[in-house]
Amino acid sequence: xxxxxxxxxxxxxxxxxxxxxxxxxxxxxxxxxxxxxxxxxxxxxxxxxxxxxxxxxxxxxxxxxxxxxxxxxxxxxxxxxxxxxxxxxxxxxxxxxxxxxxxxxxxxxxxxxxxxxxxxxxxxxxxxxxxxxxxxxxxxxxxxxxxxxxxxxxxxxxxxxxxxxxxxxxxxxxxxxxxxxxxxxxxxxxxxxxxxxxxxxxxxxxxxxxxxxxxxxxxxxxxxxxxxxxxxxxxxxxxxxxxxxxxxxxxxxxxxxxxxxxxxxxxxxxxxxxxxxxxxxxxxxx
Amino acid sequence: xxxxxxxxxxxxxxxxxxxxxxxxxxxxxxxxxxxxxxxxxxxxxxxxxxxxxxxxxxxxxxxxxxxxxxxxxxxxxxxxxxxxxxxxxxxxxxxxxxxxxxxxxxxxxxxxxxxxxxxxxxxxxxxxxxxxxxxxxxxxxxxxxxxxxxxxxxxxxxxxxxxxxxxxxxxxxxxxxxxxxxxxxxxxxxxxxxxxxxxxxxxxxxxxxxxxxxxxxxxxxxxxxxxxxxxxxxxxxxxxxxxxxxxxxxxxxxxxxxxxxxxxxxxxxxxxxxxxxxxxxxxxxx
Lengths: 286, 286
Hints:
The structure is a homodimer. The first copy, chain A, is α/β, with parallel strands linked by helices. The first copy, chain A, has a single domain, classed as Class I glutamine amidotransferase (GATase) domain (Rossmann fold), CATH 3.40.50.880. Chain A has helices at about 25-35, 55-65, 85-95, 105-110, 115-125, 135-140, 185-195, 270-285, and strands at about 5, 15, 40-45, 70-75, 95-100, 130-135, 145-150, 160-165, 170, 170-175, 200, 205-210, 215-220, 225, 235, 245-255, 260, 265-270. The first copy, chain A, has a 9-stranded mixed β-sheet with strand order 4-3-5-6-2-12-13-17-18, sandwiched between helices. A 5-stranded mixed β-sheet of chain A has the order 10-11-14-16-15, covered by helices on one side. A two-stranded antiparallel ribbon of chain A has the order 1-9. In chain A, helix 3 runs parallel beside helix 5. Chain A starts with 5 loop residues before the first strand and ends with a helix. The interface between A and B is large, with 36 and 36 residues.
């Protein structure tokens, strides 16, 4: 079995399912900050996905400052010309953590796709910076990105809308607000269209950290893994658009904080195995 | 592996996920009517679950009459004393099809549990009558019945509320409005509590027909099978109420009209196998 799922090499990559706690607790955002090697990192916030960037930046400025960021940069990219601007490229170069807010993932790919800013984000990651995103900012991390299709109408051929994403992680398709918006059937349809891709359904206030072949769940919410690699049948290629899709033998796992998943073996890792994997990763990278 | 899932012996048993089409098309209700051996059957409608029995009975009266029922009986059981009344027992005895409407399944079990009316429903089924129910009227058919717990909050220990149901089908837990209300995590939690029970998640305008060891999906919607028999781990017994449940290796199948499931082998049946199974069943019962 070909299992291409892995994160591309570089610094920590974090995908958050949306609606993460931003109060003093802020379990997930606190962890994101701690992933930087700096004690008081610079956080660059990209609010391109949002239609209310003022509000969104204001919130993250407050929470990241409260958690110990030395500076929170307002990377206010609103159109493609901004995504080519040296000013914003420079801000990303100065960020120890690049944080991509929620909103509409199609704005992200439309405005940032193929831009100097996106190239700089990739380069930052290569050089060890933390890249993190929530909701749209998480969905865009996949190579093939889900951007639409109501959950209640999915498992109908063509219902799930997909486009090319940023490809920060290979072989994985990320969906967000997963339990709250009942998107299980969405990733089952995605899996039927190409079983090679592992579905990662992030609940609200839940996150994953990609680290080589290992993905770690953290935060108060759930992470649902939708593994279609063993599906034994589907009618998807026989159907016309809108017809009901059948798919058999989809394997799912519900992970919580402290659990992880080996992307290569497609296997759940318990807290003990996960600690061992972390140690190996730390030794390999130090 | 012990797999107790099977319908109890007797006439056809149908569970519908709610919101079935009641227009002239009425694919599911038409099929329910055709399951009776009578050309123009008597349909007894039990509206106990509903808080608006007038409206609900009116709708079913119209659709079943239009589809060719010779009579549609208003079995208006509102309290426990009704459920003991000889009048209603007699109406059920006269029904070729007993149809249980939607509403609140707790009203059904509270009012009908242990009553002469429920005994008569069971006896009717033994003698070959059709029993069908939608939404609450489907959920109540399980031995252990799900009656509450918001989908967005499930996979938290104790979130899914269960009670004893009518036990018309063994080893199965039925949930309804399944895709529309995103209830996948609800049956994942149910499966973690006892992996022996097969979860059957009925979408709206989707139905299953139980026939011995075979369950057939029909109607325009989806039926999701949640098979927890192979789960490889869960923390559910270590948790306090409200804590996040992890569960690994849950197998799911999305079935559509024309597909089925062998409850004994826990195996999807394609259209060809299903036709063969139907023939065997027909020979065994003729």
